[in-house]
Design brief:
Radius of gyration: 19 Å
CATH architecture of one domain: 3-Layer(aba) Sandwich
CATH class of one domain: Alpha Beta
Strand order of the largest sheet: 5-4-1-8-9-10-11-12-13
Shape: globular
Number of strands: 13
CATH topology of one domain: UDP-N-acetylmuramoyl-L-alanine:D-glutamate ligase
Largest sheet: 9 strands, mixed
């Protein structure tokens, strides 16, 4: 029996954000949250009772320790963190907005200890002592070394018989669509659980908006046993190769407070079902976790397995529980 249910490699960051109506160039204060797409998924799964571990590199500083403390509070294993003196922590800045302006994200992630990680820095026996390795495409363009590291991780996982999940997480401010396609298309053949948003498929492959057409485009590109397509307010489409059945789950009704982290919450929800060998229920978990993320401030969902089960069939318009 593996020690972990899910492990990952990713970067820890701080998110500094200002509310809608405030411009970054005039900001006098920020809301600060610990974040990182892989970190978010591990924290969410740990809060649901799964054993998770996060491999990374952090500066040995108050900011680096702020990140590790968030992981520790969630219950994520910290043994795979590489600590570096005299280093900086990745950050990004969010300027929330309302129409006609769109919310803006500005990254400051260059020259962090994470971007210097190599294959030799990873305890592979520790990382691959797991049922599932989770990788995010958002991290692939951080540096050539990180791209090599993540591709090596996928290859080592497959050689060890460990399943691999991959969330595309395409970001236009990190790399071009051509560069993303060149790197990602070959690795899709080795993925077991594939997450792709409709908008990412439209940007990278000029996919149509119809969910079934997006699925038809992705299926020949991968040998994945499951494909999950996030459809924003239209919910989630999930397909299993074994049954060749596609299921679409509607989005949950929600009053949005903070939109950052909803995609990572959806991934954690789906994997919560996958780890229980119940993919259909996982899609429902995914829609619920995304809604919970949108309704809470911060990048991780504060919940637990018991609450999630209670809310799964609850009325979205429920009032006060006394």
């Amino acid at each position: 029996m593996p020690k972990f249910d899910v492990t990952t490699i990713g970067e820890g960051q701080l998110r500094y954000c200002v509310p809608a109506g405030t411009r970054l160039e005039k900001a006098t204060q920020f809301d600060v949250y610990v974040t990182g797409t892989e970190l978010n998924v591990m924290c969410n799964l740990a809060r649901l009772g799964w054993q998770t571990s996060w491999a990374s590199a952090l500066p040995n500083s108050p900011l680096g320790r702020r990140v590790s403390q968030e992981l520790k509070l969630s219950g994520v294993d910290l043994a795979a963190i590489n600590w570096h003196d005299n280093a900086r922590l990745a950050t990004y800045y969010v300027e929330f907005a309302v129409p006609p302006r769109s919310t803006q994200v500005h990254y400051d992630r260059a020259n962090t200890p994470y971007t210097q990680l190599t294959v030799k820095d990873i305890d592979w026996a520790h990382l691959l002592d797991t049922r599932l390795l989770h990788i995010s495409g958002l991290t692939l363009p951080m540096s050539p070394g990180i791209s090599d590291l993540l591709l090596t991780a996928i290859a080592k996982a497959k050689a060890a018989g460990v399943k691999v999940s991959f969330d595309m997480n395409y970001r236009t401010r990190l790399w071009s669509t051509a560069a993303a396609r060149t790197l990602v298309e070959p690795l899709l053949r080795d993925i077991d659980v594939l997450f792709f948003s409709r908008s990412d498929a439209q940007q990278m492959f000029q996919a149509p908006s119809d969910p079934q057409a997006v699925l038809a485009l992705l299926k020949p590109l991968t040998s994945a046993e499951a494909i999950i397509i996030s459809l924003s307010s239209d919910g989630i489409l999930g397909w299993e190769r074994a049954t060749d059945i596609a299921l679409q789950v509607p989005a949950r009704h929600v009053q949005m407070l903070d939109r950052i982290g909803a995609g990572d919450a959806m991934v954690a929800g789906v994997l919560n079902g996958w780890l229980q060998n119940d993919f259909a229920k996982g899609l429902r978990y995914g829609a619920l976790m995304a809604a919970l993320a949108l309704s809470q401030y911060g990048d991780q969902v504060i919940t637990n397995a018991a609450e999630l089960e209670t809310l799964l069939d609850a009325d979205d318009n429920a009032g006060i529980t006394r």
